[in-house]
Design a protein that fits this description.
Elements: E1 4-7, H1 15-26, E2 32-36, E3 47-49, E4 62-66, H2 83-98, E5 104-107, H3 112-119, H4 126-134, E6 140-144, E7 149-152, H5 162-165, H6 168-184, E8 192-196, H7 211-225, E9 229-234, H8 242-245, E10 250-253, H9 256-266, E11 272-276, E12 282-285, H10 302-318
Parallel strand pairs: 1-2, 1-5, 2-4, 3-4, 5-12, 7-10, 8-9, 8-10
Antiparallel strand pairs: 6-7, 6-11, 11-12
Helix pairs in contact: 1-10, 2-3
Pathway: Cofactor biosynthesis; pyridoxine 5'-phosphate biosynthesis; pyridoxine 5'-phosphate from D-erythrose 4-phosphate: step 4/5
Pfam families: PdxA (PF04166)
InterPro entries: PdxA (IPR037510), PdxA_fam (IPR005255)
Length: 319
């Protein structure tokens, strides 16, 4: 198995700590290589510089492709001077997997404002930047854990803009990308999808909104006619209890919080962010930089470990 390329993320956050903790937990089973400034690693980290990703497979300490970010790390205080280094680490990780030297990309959390302040970062988040690096117009964000997989059809936009951004084309692309990924990356031969409505009670026959009648239902009917196993539009408030979750492999939601609230409630520590529709595997822990606890040695690496395990499984499935 080729190593997973880990981009360092925001140095002032918990990214360096959880990467080292993940190596200590699963590094003997899952080869990985960290791209970043080794001076930003927690004090006392036993790390080893490598010159190629392949060298990581035989590393006896935390394997690092060293980069010089030019300024020290202050836990909890992002430094815009690190911004270009953080962005370049993501691009380097993608380049490794595109060249075949790595099996997948796992990204530690970034701090978007620091990237904007320090390097005029032009993307709303990781997902959009990765799509640009891959030359893809539309990718999909999935949040996954052992209990649930959810996909928001719209991502990082204000709630007031969701209805305008939703369209039959957007919803169709989201469903097709999700369906293909469930087959290719998760080994589900006949994926079952559940699609939430936009409005309370899925519009309740038009009394609470017309999007379900005018756009969502016709879109789903067209896909069902092609043989897709799709339920919906469903009332979102009844989609996530255990009996409902047993009836589908992934839930398609209309906006960010409709998808993320249930999965973070079910498994706050173990959720994984997966980008679907890329020509390579990308996962990430489903949490932020956690500046308030950075550098204190108390960060929970559960989600990073889950992200690495999922990246390894998806990479093997693709191979």
């Amino acid at each position: 198995m080729k190593p997973i390329a880990i981009s360092c993320g925001e140095p002032a956050g918990i990214g360096p700590e959880i990467a080292v903790a993940a190596w200590n937990a699963v590094g003997r089973d899952i080869p990985m290589v960290w791209i970043g400034d080794p001076t930003h690693l927690p004090d006392g980290t036993d790390w080893q510089a490598v010159t190629t990703a392949a060298d990581a497979a035989t590393a006896t300490a935390f394997p690092v492709l060293p980069r010089d970010f030019g300024a020290p790390r202050v836990p909890g205080t992002p430094n815009p001077a690190h911004a270009q280094g953080v962005i370049d680490a993501i691009a380097d990780a993608v380049a490794l997997v595109q060249s075949g030297d790595a099996s997948a990309v796992c990204t530690a959390p970034i701090h978007k404002q620091a990237l904007i302040d320090g390097a005029d970062f032009a993307y709303p988040g990781h997902t959009e930047y990765l799509a640009a690096l891959a030359g893809r117009d539309h990718v999909v964000m999935m949040l996954a854990c052992d209990l649930l997989r959810v996909v928001p059809a719209t991502i990082h936009i204000p709630l007031a803009q969701v209805a305008d951004q939703l369209s039959a084309a957007t919803l169709t692309d989201t469903i097709l990308i999700t369906h293909a990924a469930l087959k290719r990356d998760f080994g589900i031969a006949q994926p079952r999808l559940a699609v939430a409505g936009l409005n309370p009670h899925a519009g309740e026959g038009g009394k609470m909104g017309m999007e379900e009648i005018e756009m969502i239902t016709p879109t789903l009917d067209a896909l069902r006619a092609e043989g897709f196993d799709i339920a919906g539009p469903l009332s979102a408030d009844t989609m996530f209890h255990p009996a409902a979750r047993a009836r589908y492999d992934a839930a398609i939601c209309m906006y960010h919080d409709q998808a993320l609230i249930p999965i973070k409630t079910l498994d706050f520590s173990g959720g994984v962010n997966v980008t679907l529709g890329l020509p390579f595997v990308r996962t990430s822990p489903d949490h932020g930089t956690a500046f308030d606890i950075a550098g204190q040695g108390i960060a929970d690496a559960t989600s990073m470990i889950a992200a690495l395990k999922m990246a390894a499984n998806m990479g093997q499935a693709r191979a």
